[in-house]
């Protein structure tokens, strides 16, 4: 039996893996926060074998914004060692859901896409980043609730 198979009445059935992608241009703030919250949701809901989480940017920065690392640390999430990375067109079209962070009008055939229209936390004081962080958390939880049922 593979990691994505379960037994129903003695027969193996395959559960579809779902790929959730969170992207923005620099992959240094909003999409990194979304990924961290999505990883937490996946673990808390026991969906490790069913959900792949991807993050990336079209023009990645050299590092995650320090204020983003600080804001997530305040809620117990650690971004230490995370680096912005590029997201490919192939990754996007193979995703089941893609959230852009206010920097795209992306449309992909057959892929559920949303633009979350969030302010960029880069260069902002922590007091302005906290509401952005909290809104990202709310949206990620809603995304999981919609796709996998409420906790």
Overall description:
With 151 residues, this protein is of the alpha/beta class. Helices cover 34% and strands 20% of the residues. The chain has one domain: Rossmann fold. The protein has helices at 30-44, 66-73, 89-93, 126-148; strands at 5-8, 11-14, 18-24, 51-57, 97-100, 112-115. The strands form two sheets. Strands 4-3-5-6 form a four-stranded parallel beta sheet, with helices on one face. A two-stranded antiparallel ribbon has the order 1-2. Helix 2 (66-73) crosses helix 4. The two termini are 27 Å apart.
CATH architecture: 3-Layer(aba) Sandwich
**Rounded mean pLDDT score:** 90
How much helix is in the residues?
Answer: 25-40%
Order of helices and strands: EEEHEHHEEH
> Which CATH class applies here?
Alpha Beta
Structural class: alpha/beta
Strand order of the largest sheet: 4-3-5-6
Brief rundown of the structure:
This protein is an alpha/beta fold and 151 residues long.
Write the layout of secondary structure elements.
Layout: E1 5-8, E2 11-14, E3 18-24, H1 30-44, E4 51-57, H2 66-73, H3 89-93, E5 97-100, E6 112-115, H4 126-148
Parallel strand pairs: 3-4, 3-5, 5-6
Antiparallel strand pairs: 1-2
Helix pairs in contact: 1-4, 2-4
Based on the model shown, name its key terms.
single chain; alpha/beta; Rossmann fold; two-stranded antiparallel sheet; globular
